[in-house]
Design brief:
seven-stranded mixed sheet, 7 strands, about 40% helix
Length: about 260
């Protein structure tokens, strides 16, 4: 079983972390929304607290892994938020299990792994794994997730939440990015969708977010000023309010 973080009560809200992250970096969201939702934040195989789980190399396999965890926990229906690579995992899950997903929050992500606006190519990241070592790589990449880099107040918290990643899991994830593309399937989504990100994101371009949002019928797009890739840790109050407002429209009793 994957490691996971869980807090709260009510309808289930699954929070899926991204590349080099960990479910623990959603603690501010769990604290804010735990009175209304059963918050579950898995650590993907080979990352953070799931470092003993076998690494995989596709978004489909990552999705299957977190769905298997939810099956073990007896969670049949849930709201689903995915951040960055976790957003790709969430998209795959929503397409594979449409009847289980109540609503979908696509946070700082894309429907394919072609990310021309990323701070460096995935090939460059892969080449740096051996040169820098995972600890230095994680420090450097995590710094790009904040407008103020490693001076950001929540940088140490975020870095620590993602500690424990294995090299084979990192390389597998880099391959997963490059082989993922469900853009042609976005029209299949028939559920409430929120696309949300910060306006200073260096990993995913705003144009890609807009294109994804406009390809999903009825999707809402919200851009938060002043935040980068981890706007949920930079502009936490605004981010949590946006989640609460969206979830209230899809689950009025729990979101009140």
């Amino acid at each position: 079983m994957l490691n996971y973080h869980r807090y709260g009560r009510g309808p289930s809200l699954v929070l899926q972390h991204g590349f080099l992250g960990g479910g623990g970096y959603f603690a501010p969201q769990m604290a804010s929304l735990g009175e209304a939702f059963d918050m579950i934040a898995p650590d993907l195989p080979g990352f953070a607290g799931s470092q003993d789980a076998p690494a995989v190399d596709s978004i489909k396999a990552l999705s299957d892994a977190h769905v298997a965890l939810l099956d073990e926990l007896g969670v049949d229906e849930f709201h689903l938020l995915g951040h960055s690579m976790g957003g790709m995992v969430a998209l795959q899950t929503a397409l594979d299990h449409p009847k289980r997903i109540k609503s979908l929050i696509l946070y700082a992500t894309n429907s394919c792994g072609d990310l021309p606006g990323r701070f460096e190519t995935f090939e460059e990241t892969a080449n740096r794994v051996a040169v820098e070592g995972l600890e230095n790589l994680a420090h450097r990449i995590t710094a790009t997730w904040f407008a103020d880099g490693d001076n950001a107040p929540m940088f140490p918290f975020c870095l620590n939440a993602g500690s424990g990643a294995r090299e084979d899991a990192v390389r597998g994830a880099l391959n997963a990015f490059q082989t993922f593309d469900v853009t042609h399937r976005l029209a299949e989504l028939n559920l409430p969708v929120l696309v949300i990100a910060g306006d200073r994101d260096r990993s995913y371009s705003l144009s890609g977010l807009v294109q994804m949002a406009t390809s999903i019928a009825g999707a809402r797009l919200q851009i938060i000023a002043g935040g980068a890739h981890c706007v949920h840790l930079e502009q936490t109050d605004q981010f949590n309010l946006a989640l609460a407002q969206f979830l209230r429209t899809t689950n009025p009793a729990a979101g009140s």
